[in-house]
Amino acid sequence: MNFDVFISYHTKSSAHITEAVCNALENKKIKCWYAPRNISGSYARSIVEAINKCKVFLLILNKESSYSEDVLNEINLAVERVRKGEDISIIPFHTSEEDISDDAKYYLGRIHWVDAITPPLEKRINELTSRISYILNKNSNQETKDDKQTLKSNYSATINNFVGRRGELRQIKENLNKYGKVFVEGMGGIGKSELIKAFINENINEFNKIIFAIYEDNLINTITKETYFKITDFFRKTDEHGNPENLEIYFQRKLDKINELTDEKTLIIIDNFDTESDNNLKDLLKGNYKIIFTTRNDFSSYKLPVIHIGPLENKQDLIEIFKNSYQLPINSEEENTIFQIINLIGKHTLTINLIASAMNESRIKPQKMLENLKAKNINISTNITHNLENYDTLYNCLHNIFNLSNLTEEEKHILKLLNLFPLKGISFEDFMNLCELDDGLTVNKLIKKSIITYNVVNDYISLHPLISSLIDKEMTISLKEAKPLIKNVAKKYAWNITLETVEKYAPICLNLYTKFKDFDVTEALDFISLSNFILATNNWSVTENILSTAVNLFEQDKQNYIDELIIAYGSIGYLYSVKEKNFFENKQYIQKNLDLTKDNPKYYKNHGDALRAMADLYLADKEYSKAKEYIEKSYIYLNKDATTPDNFWGSYYYVSSKIYKALKEYDKAIIDADKCYKYLFGLYKKENLDVSAAYKLKGEINLEQGNTQKAINLLEKALEIRLKYRSDNNSTVLEVKESLAMSYFKNKNYSKALEIYENIYQIIKDNFCNTDKWLEDIKNNINNCKKKM
Description:
The protein is of the alpha/beta class and 789 residues long. 59% of the residues lie in helices and 7% in strands.
């Protein structure tokens, strides 16, 4: 039987819930497996086979299941698959307030428990169904490779407790259909984003694409981010040296491409467009797509519809919002008291949710809360505007609600950590792992209090911008508190850095640097690692600031931080080597490493590696005799230390082979290229980018020797590996293709050489800038192929 979801449950206590969940899922064409319904043959073997095949492991979690040996065994099998890196999602569906066993908490501590406690159960099951549908669609709909460029939708339908505002929803629809562009304006926290999500959910079938973006400093940053606006096979150009295309030029080019790929069936949302002006707004408004901005600011001067979102006026709608977060019974007299509370807090939607959650959590009765608010002189005017200077009373109210919520130190710690992440949020599991938090129950409590926003569909947690601002004001996070997050993000850096990891971690790294610019010497190495993600976004200035700070910190205490200073000098030297190929600055830092490590047996291997770096620098500058002089010295020092690591030797033989190749000493070049390959493959135990470089080098040596077929075989292998890690338009991929095309040409396979050269020409033309000379060379090669055919 083919199925997607394995349901683990305690038979006596949860059979009815299991059947209800299964029916809901199977009504959505999601096939489920659960015992005893699907048992075939041996009971134990059937369970094991089913867990090993499922894509989603759904646990109906209550006290009884958490103590069941059978259920715990099933959880263990699912967790083992996760540890092996297999494609499986574990979802606990938490159905009871009773305590859960420590064994279950051990397995499930860092996984979000989907709420099934808050009534009605039918609604919670619908949310669960949406979550599982999202997971299965996300995993199965890995966009198929297409010759056509497409702009990817990024919106995941959310389930929200939306109340009222039918008139505003109609206004948005009517104005969007008539004008195509709409501003939805109102004070922070009044419910603009939820209104837009409700509009999307009601009209989702009217659009082919939906892009939901959060405004980040300016429209250039927002539009150029792959996070929001991802176009297949469309990237920021670089020149042949890897220097990035001007960001404003890239923005205009990408906006033109978005216009080309969209029409009136595309909906773009720019959320939190909280700026007085943006120089690129007029350009964005020219497109054929439909677009909605949510904003605190006044954009009426643009002669487009501005729909003002003020406080809700309908008493029952307001009380319904309150009831969504307050589960205690309410009589008619208390409803009147609640309405007085709502009036005192300015009918502000976010504040209503927060105060209701605080009352629910603390079991505070409406009359007591009303007395507390009056005693603290809380009274927000319903006429408060979007201007920041008028937010003081609102912040004061939020501040008091936080106090009334009796936040624990653990809860405050979690909020401070989450405030280090971008406003778009992060997946629950990533947050728990990166921050080394073991108990997700505290996060769940903050979700129930409406302080943390939870998207049940994509499992993302985030903070509302107002709450984020309040945390900034009220809760200063220390470097010590952020240390686990800093260390764990730093560990995510690897030389095989990918677009995916850069998109995920670079914004966090920037936030950490912004918050902790004055990091101390004990954190400097981790910040060097963070800088690698930032460098990958071509943010040269921040990278340089981090590395310069690290160098200065280590230099202040050289004797105790020699090891760290060696790394810092190497990192900043590398920065200058890729930044406009700055020979002088790079050489300066390599020389500092040479001075730091000379005449000290402890650092012979480091001295040898710095000599290798200097040899590579002279090789790039075509001073081959100097390069040979330094590489020979490098070998002497590397060989003096029996602990020289394999990666040092791999790098040594790579540079050595390139130098001998440049000097046309091919026998030595091929011997060292073979040694380079053996060291690198032995180090990684797999074929990666470094191993690909060794294949490329061996191929090019054979090409120069005239061994064209052998060169083709080696370069084909180099290209195959490189394409696993880099996109087709990466300059290092094109370098391999150029060598491969030349190999085919010299092997007299002119049609194959022509095919590759034409491919290279088109990629350079589409993806690179300032490349007239490069294009001219490729065009000449194309013409040479045609002449030979």
